[in-house]
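Summary for the steering committee. The consortium agreed at its last meeting that each partner would contribute one worked example illustrating the joint modelling workflow. Our contribution is presented below. We chose a case with several input lines so that the handling of multiple components could be demonstrated. No manual editing was applied between input and output; the record is shown as generated.
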Amino acid sequence: MSPRPTRLRRVSNPPVISGLRPYGGKAKEGQQGSVFLHLEEYEVIRLCDYENLNHHEAARVMDVSRPTLTRIYAKARAKIADALVTGKQVIIEGGKVYFDSDWYKCNGCNCLFNQPDKGVTPEKCPLCGRSETITRYESSNNQYRAEP
Amino acid sequence: MRVAITSTGQSLESRLDQRFGRCAFFVIYDTETGGVEILPNPNKDAEEGAGPASVQLVASKEVQKIVSGEFGVKIKSLLDSLKIQMIVYKEKEKTVKSVIDMLNNQ
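What follows is the complete predicted structure of the assembly.
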C-alpha cells in the first residue's frame, strides 16, 4: 500500500527574503553547506513565534491537524538550530504548500475580490472605491477546509 | 498601478470577457498615466494550461490587479504567490471602458 498523500499546507504570504547567509568567523573560510527550510516550515515559525499563535490556532490557519503542525514546527526549529550552530546558510524553498487568501464581496458594484496581503482587511472596493459595501465572502467550495 | 482587464474585442467598447485564461484580449490599463495596451491572448484556443500561461503573460506586464468574469481553479494559488489581486466581475454587458471609468472614480 502506498502511504497516505501529504495534505497541502496553506501558506498566506511568501517570505520577503529567499534565505539568510552567515557572515564573519568560519563563514569566510568557505561554504559550510546549506539548510533548506521549506515554505511550510517558514510559515509555522512565522505563526508560532512571530504572531504568537498557539499550535491549535496555527494548525487552523495552515489547514492541517494540530499534531502535524507540531511536527512541522519541530522540524523547522531543528533546521534553524542546525544552521545557527554550524554556520550554514538558510535557503527557503520547496514544501507541499499552496497560497491562499480571503475573498471579499462588494455589494455596491456586485463584484468579488480577494486580498493578496493576508491579515489586512481591505478598506475600499478595488473596483468602485466604496468602503461601506464590503463584506467577507465565504466561498461554497470549502472542501479543503476542515474545522479541527 | 497597472490593471489587466479581460476583453472580448480589440476596442475599449468591447465587452468584458467572462473567462480569464481563454479570453480573447487583455487590456492593460495604467491608472497613473491612463495608458492602454491591448494584447491578444495566445492561449485563447489552448487545450490545457491556458490559465497558468495567461498568468505568466499578465505577470510579465507587472499588473497588480486583474478584472475578469471568472478564474479557473489553478489560478488562485498562482496569483496569491505573485500578490496579484483578482476581481471577479460578472457583468456580461459591461464594456471595458465602463470598468476603466469605475477604476478612475476612486
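The CA atoms of residues 103 and 141 of chain A lie 12 Å apart. Confidence is low (pLDDT under 50) at residues 140-148 of chain A.
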